[in-house]
Amino acid sequence: MKLKLSCLFFIFSLSVFSQDTIQLQPKDSLSHWRNKNKVGFDISQIAFVNWSAGGNSAISGLIKGDFSRVYTKGNQKWVNELIVRYGLNKQDGVDLRKTDDLIQLSSTFGYRKDSITNWYHSAKFNFNTQFSNGYAYPNTEKAISRLFAPAYIFLGVGTENASKSKHRIFYISPFTFKTTFVLDQTLANQGAFGVTEAVVDSNGLIITNGKQTRTELGFLFSSYYKKEIAKNVVWVNKLVLFSDYINKFGNIDIDYDFRLDLTVNQHVKVNIGAQFIYDDDIKAKKQIDGKQVTLGPKLQIRQMLGVGLVYTFLNHH
């Protein structure tokens, strides 16, 4: 009796939130803090053996965290949030590649004149960067981004409208400083991410190094909307618009992020989303004929689909 293996196809996908905690204070507590922690790890794997349709075996992993600390007392509110993500992918015959990379810290302090109004006088701080080098694959010799290259800081004052009944928050700031950091001198010399590039002589030798920072003063608008649009379907929208007063006012940097959270049951959830970024200070790079070529600014798109197991518990103290 002969046994012939003609084909084998195997897929494994796992998405687990290892912890999702919300710490609420009882009414008689002296603390005014409300804490939320969410840590997750996703892993997916696909393997082929003699598969007639063809395909490459691959494994992917993503670790993510979302931590928030909210302080409320009287008419004061201070909201702090840290979001981190890092993902990798490995395919047969292809080097390990990064699929996601984010460090994002935000802090907003607001004060309103009474407990009825939804309008707050607010000050906002945002910081964004990444963990590791980024590449224009398949080129892995020249990094196109690094830790703190770039990094962005937004610092401004304005007004915020927060309405629980309308499920939305929007913030308007006529005075926001945006500072871009490129703390890698090689990238700074190239003028990456809008900083002033190096001055070179006719032989290409550097006379003056490129600047590692760039500061802009402009108008910032941001909005957040979260609502259950159907049973067990939650729609989340984030939009950030920024325009510099000094350089090309009216030219708008756009960062739009939307997500659909679908609840299958108490422990299984599906996330579908996409992010769109346009910033004319960010020039796309592409591998052409074995060389890394700098192109003009392009619309950046990131799409996401995740299926996961979720475990949630409340911790009262």
Structural write-up:
The chain has 317 residues and is mainly β. The protein has one domain: Porin, CATH 2.40.160. The protein contains 1 helix and 20 strands. The chain has one helix at 185-189; strands at 8-24, 33-49, 58-73, 76-91, 97-111, 119-129, 134-135, 143-145, 151-163, 168-181, 199-200, 206-208, 213-230, 233-244, 252-263, 268-278, 283-288, 291-297, 300-309, 313-316. A 14-stranded mixed beta sheet has the order 19-16-15-14-13-10-9-6-5-4-3-2-1-20, with no helix packed on it. A two-stranded antiparallel ribbon has the order 7-8. It has a two-stranded antiparallel ribbon with strand order 11-12. Strand 15 (252-263) and strand 16 (268-278) form a beta hairpin. The chain starts with 7 loop residues before the first strand and ends with a strand. Mean pLDDT is 84; it is low at 1-7, 15-28 and 312-317. Keywords: Signal.
Which terms would index this structure?
14-stranded mixed beta sheet, mainly beta, 20 strands, single chain, disordered N terminus, 317 residues, 66% strand, Porin, two-stranded antiparallel ribbon, disordered C terminus
Span between termini: 67 Å
**CATH fold annotation:** Porin
Fraction of residues in H or I helices: under 10%
Mean pLDDT: 84
- Backbone shape: flat
Instruction: Describe the largest sheet.
Output: 14 strands, mixed
Can you tell me the number of structural domains? 1
Low-confidence stretches: 1-7, 15-28, 312-317
Could you state the order of secondary-structure elements as H and E?
A: EEEEEEEEEEHEEEEEEEEEE
Count, helices: 1
Radius of gyration: 23 Å
Strand order of the largest sheet: 19-16-15-14-13-10-9-6-5-4-3-2-1-20
Secondary-structure class: mainly beta
Which CATH class? Mainly Beta
CATH architecture: Beta Barrel
Total DSSP E strands: 20
Strand coverage percent: over 45%
